[in-house]
Fold these 3 entries.
Entry 1:
Amino acid sequence: MATKNKTEMTELVLLGLSSRPEMQPVIFGVVLIMYLMAVLGNTLLVLVACSDPKLQTPMYFLLSQLSLIDISLTTITVPQMLVHTLSVDRSISYNCCMTQLFFFMAVGSMEGHLLAAMAYDHYVAICAPLRYSAIVSHSLCLRITLTSWVVVSLNSLLYSLSVTRLTFCGNKVTHFFCDITPLLKLSCTRPVVNEMLIFTEGVAVVGSPFFFIWCSYVRIGIALAHMHSFAALRKALSTCSSHILVVLLLFGSLARMYLKPSSSYDLDQDRQVAIFYTLISPMLNPLICSLRNQDVKGALWRLFRKLHTSAWLSDKQRMRNKFRRTKG
C-alpha cells in the first residue's frame, strides 16, 4: 500500500482479536458477557460506596473512583470491538482513532494515580491511625483526584499529538482499538521521539505512582513488623492484600505492553495483554476489592435487602389498589 501521511489518512482499519470468521460469534459472546460483568460489578460498587452511610469515608470514595475508571476503560474500547466483531466494515475514522487514543491513555494512567492515593490512605490508616481523620479527608482526596486528572490529561494530549505527526505506511491496525503500540508499528520510520517520550515522560507519569506505592508499602511493612495485636495485623493484611493484587495486575500489564522499543513489539501477544488489561482486570477488580472486605459485603447485603423490601412494599401497594378498585 502506498505511504500515507497524516493529512491523507482519513480512516484506519482495526483488525480485531482474530481474522477467522468462525471465531467471531464466540469472541462476541465471551467478550459481551465479560463486559456486562465488568460494568455491572463496578456500577454496583459505585452505588454501594455512594449510598451506604457506613462507607462515606475517603477510602471508599477512592474505591468508587477506581470503579468509575474501570467502567470508562472498558467502555472506551470494548463496545467498538463488539460492533467490529460482527461487522464486515472494521474501519474507524482517523479523528475518532486519535480521540480514542487520548481518552484511553488518560483513563489508563489515571488508574495508577488512584491506586497511589489508595496506598497513601492505607499508609496513614496503619502507620498513624490516631491522626487519620486529621490527615486524610474527602477534600484531600478530591484535590488529589482533580490534580491527577490534569496531569494524565496533559500527558495523554502530548502522546496523541506526537502520534499525529507520524507518517504511516498503511492503515491496517493489528489491534481491536487505537493504542499507541500498534500505531507506532505503522510508522514508516522508527518513531524515535515517541519512544523517548515513553521511556522518559511516560515512565515519570506512570512510574511515579508505582514508586510512591512501593515506598508506602515499605513503611507499612515496617509498621506491621512492630504490631503486637494479631487482630490488627490480620485486618491490615486483609486490606492491603486486595490493593496489592490490583496494583500488580495493572502495572504488570502496563510494563508488558509499553516498556520496550517498537522493534521488539509482538502485536499478537500485545493484544492478549490488552484484553486482560481492558476487560479481565476491570471485571476482577470489584471481586478483589469486595470479597475480603467485610464493610463492602455488609453494605451489599443492606442494599439488596433494601431493594427487596422496596419491591415487596411496591407489590403489596399494587395489590391493595387493585383490591380497592375491585371492591369499588
Entry 2:
Amino acid sequence: MNGTDHISLYLSIVDTEKYCLGWEVYATFKLFVFDQIRDKFLTIQDAEGMIRRFHDIKMEWGFDKFLPLDSFNFLPNGYLVNDCCVFGAEVFVHERSAKRDYLSMIKEPSNRIMTWKIENFSTQQDKAPIYSRIYVVGDLKWKLLVYPKGIYEGANKAISVFLYSVDCVTPDLKIFAEFKLRIRDQIDNKHAEEKTKYWFSAAFSDWGFSQLLLREDLERACKGFLVEDTLIVEAEIMVMSTSSSRYLSRNCTWED
C-alpha cells in the first residue's frame, strides 16, 4: 500500500468496541521480519522511537516501504524459507497524565434526522457549495453542504455532500459525531448512503463524501434521485458528543 515493489507492514489495534468514546492509546513499537537462516531479526522503527497515538479515526501505524520485494524474495537473505515467513512486533504502551477531553455522549439524539429538499436543483448547478438552513439536533446546530458539480475526487463527476458544525467556532471546542449522509431515491427508496464518524473543530468544521452520488446516476430518471427537479438530501446522527478539557491521569481503561 503506497509502497510499489515493497512489502508494507503495519501495527493495528483491535477489539476497540470495549473502549469508551474518545479512547486513545499511546505506543512506541518496532516491526520485524525474521531471518530464518541466521536466526536474527531485521527490525524497523520510527526515528528516535516516536510515540504514536492510536484512536478511533487512526487505528494503525506502520511502514509503506518496510522491505523491498526483491530483498524479501532473495532466498539467501533467509526471509522466505519453504514459502514461509515470520513477521512480528514489539509494542510498548505509554501511560499518560495530561490534558484530556471529558466527553458527554448522546446516542440517538432528538431530531437526529435532517431532511433538506432542494427544489429547482438544475438552476443551482454553478453554486459551490449550497448551504441548508440550520438544524438543531439535541442542543447542537448543524448545516448540510452540497456541491452540485462535486469537489475533490468528485469534481465534475459526482454530487458531494458534507455535514457542517455551526457550533465549532472556538479552538477549545470539539464535537464528535457518527452519522450517515444520503441522497434519497424518491421512487424505490434505494438511497445513495454512506456512514462515517468525525471530530469536528474550528479548523475542520465539515466532513462528508466527495462522491456520494455519481452525476450519471443523478441524471437517469429511473434512479429516482431527481424528481421534478427536486433533490432530497438527508443527514442522520446516531451518536454525538461535545468535549471539554480536564487534567486526568486517564479516562479510559484498556487491556495490554
Entry 3:
Amino acid sequence: MTKQNLFDAKSCVNSTMFVVEMVSPPPPPPPRGSCINNISRKTLVEINGDPKIMKSWIDSMRASSPTHHMSTTLYEDKTSWMMRGTVRKLARYFPTAIVSGRCRDKVYNFVQLSELYYAGSHGMDIKGPSKGSKYSKKGTQAILFQPASKFLPMIIEVYKELLDKTKSIEGVRVENNKFCVSVHFRCVDEKKWGELSQEVRLVLKEYPKLKLCQGRKVLEIRPIIKWDKGKALQFLLQSLGYAKCNDVFPIYIGDDRTDEDAFKVLRERRQGLGILVSKTPKETHASYSLQEPSEVMKFLLLLIEWKMLSLRRQSKIQKQLEEIKSSLNY
C-alpha cells in the first residue's frame, strides 16, 4: 500500500469496516464505477450547451473508461465470489457495510449476507440488518433511511424517457437504481458516445432538480441533494452510536470517484482511514491504496487474522486474571 498521512491506529480498541462493492457479478456484469480523475466540477456535475464543455465531457468519458480485457473480467468474477466469503468472516468481528451506486435490493440479491449494512444508490438508500446488529449501541433502532424518497416518481419518469430516447443507440443499457438512473455505455461504439450524451442531456433539460454525473462507462442521473457516500458513512457511524467514540477506527475501501466523499470524511475526522483501489496513482483523499480486489481480499483476511489473535490474547489474559483472583481468594 502507498502510505500518506495516517491517524495512529494503535490507540484504537474497536474497528468499523465499511466495504465498497467493487467487483461485478457473473457475466453479463453491470459496469462498475470509475476511478478518480482530474475533471472539473462543472464537467462532472452539469452539462450545458457549450461545445467546449461538450468536448470536455466526451474527453472525460474516454479518460474515465479504460478498456478491460475479458481475462481480467473473468478473474474478477471469480474473485467476487471468494470476496463474499471473506466479507462474511469479516462481519463476524466488525460491523460491515457495503456502499454502492447500484440499487440496494440488487446489491443484496447478489451478496445475500443478511448480517451486513447496505447503502445503495450512492448512499441514498440505507438499511441495516433486519434483526438489528450486535455492534449497535444499546437503545439504537434498526436502520432504514432514504433521504431522496420524494424524488422516486421523477426518477421513474426519467428512466422511461431515457429508455425511449436511447433505444436507437446500439449497446446502451439504461438501469433504474431506484434513487438514480444509470446509462451504461460499455458496449456502445465510442463514435456514438457524443450522440448518447446529447440524448441524455436533452432529457435532463426538463428536470432541473436532477444532475448528471459520470462513472466508468456509465452516465448517472441523481437528485440534487446534499447527500453522498461521505454523508452515508457519517449516518452509519451515528446510527451505530460510534459518531463520538474515540476508540472506534473506521476503514473505508473504494475504487470509485464517488468514494472520495467518504475518504474526505475520514481524513477530516483524523480517525480512521480510506483505502483507494487503483492500479495507477491518482489524486485522492484516501490514506492508502491497493491495486486490485485480490489485494483487498488479502488485506481483509489479515484484518480478520489480527482480530482473532487479539481475541485469543484477551481470552488468555482474562483466564490468567481469573486464576490470580481465585488464588487470592483461596
